[in-house]
Amino acid sequence: MPIAIDRRLLIKAGAFGLAALSTPGVAQILTARGFTHGVASGEPSARSVLLWTRYVGSGETKLHCEVALDEGFSRIAGGGDVVASPGHDNCAKLVVTGLDPDKWYFYRFVAPDGTMSETGRTRTLPVGDVSRFGIGLFSCSNMPFGWFNAYAHAAARGDLDLMVHVGDYFYEYGPGHYPVTDAPERSVRPTHETVTLADYRLRFACYRLDPDLRRLHQQFPMIAQWDDHEFANDDWQNGAENHDPATEGPWPSRKAAAMRAYREWMPVSDALYNSFQIGSLATIFRPETRVTGRSQQLDFSTVMTGQADVAKALAAFRDGPWMSPERTLMGAKQEAWLYKGLTDSAKAGTRWQILAQEIVMGTLHAPAAFADLTPVGAPAKTRQQMLGISAAARAGLPYNMDSWDGYPAARERLLRAAREADCNLIVLSGDSHNAWGNELSLGGEPVGVEYAGHSVTSSGFESFLPSIAPDNLATMLRQTNPGLIFTDTSRRGYVSLELTPDAVKGTWHFMSTIAARTTIGTESQGLGVKWGERRFSRS
């Protein structure tokens, strides 16, 4: 229903800072009343689902939720009451239980005055034998880069059952940073980097007004997990690359604010990690690899700075700190939970074990001649980074210390646990902005495959290496990395997966553009894996 504007709520704008009111569009976000951001659902089980909405009233408002088997709500199947409170930015979440497995449901929220939210659609997970299940995979949706056409394309499909978002749902940067120039129609608020609780809430409010993201949430349940940009770039347990305590306050305060806003605005529970059972077909594990247990990322520049013999310094780094078994992405407690879950899933006869997590797991080395690809006229910092990556490649080191490549002992523990449990492992990833189809192995023995998704809008290698044709770069990367079966480094989009008992087919969908709001011209390319083979099919 249309958003009504109540000028009295301008009094509450102080929580966002008075300067925000001078920005076009912000006053509407701050003063909207009623159901302001549609509906969403998430974290389904066989008999329950979490439902979300946002309602702005004059204070705490009790909403009634209705769940029905039909869009006309003539066959009510469940529901309940929930309070939309200013203390939670007027967001309301309700877990509805007592539903039947493997069913699509319709839901809506009703305010005390009788006004209704838009109608959402969701579904419960199946039990027993399952012949087919469809999943959409998303990551890295930076609004100022362009339109969310990937969301629009997926929202219109009739063959998907569940959406998975593995992070960078929004970006914390201020205007003019990433991207350098914002398209006016895709600009975001606040007009500075998000640091405080009010900042993170306002950024969510902007993103969640996007019509294609709103439609995706309205049509499908979602399993979601944050990555770094919902907090700050390249964060870890005790800090972030993009956080300065001297000007932005203590990291724990910023982390707590970001976490709170995420849990308010997303259809998620407060569980840091969780698993979801799709009958006997698959178990989806949703770990947390970013901010609660992650050791600080290693840095090539600190290894090489001031060293007369760079090769010797990198060799010592490779054989020492990089291989340290103490370095972790999840922490000991979560690792134990995941390894037990993998074992239990396989032992129960579940066909596929799916790890839906934030960062690329496959090993990716840069070509040794990477520095030769540095664009002419590139900044000195960029040139230095490219030289460092090339030196690391010659030392046998991967180029991205923020991915699983920066934590090889932790990755080996996980792959060993999957192999010992006799899992058929499917890893879903995001973060890198590029598309990767990786085969995962341990000691030359196949363990599973990885579908690493490209971004919804955030730029990939095409922006950083414009001097080389994307196809040529892809060829160089595949030649350098034996486990890399497929890559695309220049197009935006999402991944869909079709699960059956005997095979998984993953397809990368590439949008023709993000500069205009359209899904015309979408192209796709897929890879399959047969049950028991743990490597991509060659036929």
Put the structure in a nutshell.
Pfam families: PhoD, PhoD_N. The chain has helices at residues 26-31, 149-155, 197-207, 211-219, 245-248, 251-265, 300-304, 310-319, 332-347, 380-394, 408-420, 461-464, 470-480; strands at residues 4-5, 32-42, 49-56, 61-68, 76-84, 91-96, 104-110, 120-123, 133-138, 162-165, 221-224, 235-236, 239-240, 274-278, 282-286, 352-356, 425-429, 435-442, 445-452, 484-488, 493-499, 503-510, 523-530.
Q: So what's the overall shape?
A: globular
Instruction: Supply Rg.
Output: 23 Å
How many DSSP-defined strands? 23
Range of strand content? 25-35%
Mean pLDDT: 93
Task: Estimate percent helicity.
Answer: 10-25%
What would you say the CATH architecture of the largest domain is?
4-Layer Sandwich
Instruction: Provide the number of structural domains.
Output: 2
Q: What top-tier CATH class of the largest domain fits best?
A: Alpha Beta
Low-confidence stretches: 1-24
Annotated CATH topology of the largest domain: Purple Acid Phosphatase, chain A, domain 2
**CATH homology superfamily name of the largest domain:** Alkaline phosphatase D (PhoD)
State the helix count.
Answer: 13
- Distance, first to last CA: 51 Å
Pairing-aware structural class of the strands and helices? alpha+beta
Task: Report on the biggest sheet.
Answer: 10 strands, mixed
Question: How would you describe this structure in keywords?
Answer:
single chain, 539 residues, alpha+beta, Immunoglobulin-like, Purple Acid Phosphatase, chain A, domain 2, 2 domains, seven-stranded mixed sheet, 13 helices, globular, disordered N terminus, Alkaline phosphatase D family protein, signal, PhoD-like_sf, PhoD_N, Phospholipid_Metab_Enz
